[in-house]
Amino acid sequence: MADAPASVYIEPNRKYRLLPRHSGKCVEIAAGNTANDTPLKQADCAGSASNQQFTLERIGSTPYFRAKVVASGKCLDITGWKHEDNTPVAQSTCDADGGPQANQQFRLDYVDGSGMDVVVAPRIVHSDKCVTVSGASTQVGAAVVQSTCTGAANQQYTLRIEP
Q: Residue 39 in contact with residue 51, Cβ under 8 Å?
């Protein structure tokens, strides 16, 4: 019998940043952009930039979460429910049909760490793919996409609570 994965505690009503483990940068939606389908990208971390902050809301009693961009109030999403690798992770209106949508839900697989710096591998529920910095790039502007989970550092994120 396999051991159950360690659970990740998400503090309700807190803001978080996602820092790709391989680069130490932040993920963001371009500042001020509230349009649906605006892609997530990697950027230098900037103070208290709300376009780099997310709230994580548990879906009922499931192990799944929605991630909302603080600046826009929109959810991270895989547009068109696509399953292909390299499909951008973008923002979109939350739960457009009135109920939780699997393309806007993530499971936060525990990797390591504790306290303020827990490392997780976010997995998209509908496709079972991982949130990935494309090409393991360390450059500002690198795309954040879904791709087959490999356990690589560009699929692992420090989940940091904002003060």
A: no
* 103: Cβ contacts below 8 Å, ≥ 6 apart: 77, 78, 79, 81, 124, 125, 126, 127
Q: How far is CA 68 from CA 6, 17, 108, in A?
A: 24, 11, 14
| 107-129 confidence digits (pLDDT tens) | 999 999 877 789 999 999 999 99
The beta-strand segments (E) located in 22-103 are 26-29, 38-43, 54-58, 64-69, 75-77, 87-88, 90-92
Beta strands in the chain, from DSSP E residues, in sequence order: 15-20, 26-29, 38-43, 54-58, 64-69, 75-77, 87-88, 90-92, 106-112, 117-124, 130-133, 144-147, 157-161
Euclidean distance between CA atoms 134 and 106, whole angstroms: 18
Buried b (16+ CB within 10 A) or exposed e, 34-53: eeeebbbbbbeeeeebebbb
What is the number of other CB atoms lying within 10 angstroms of the CB of residue 14? 13
Overall size of the chain counted in residues: 163
pTM confidence score:
0.92
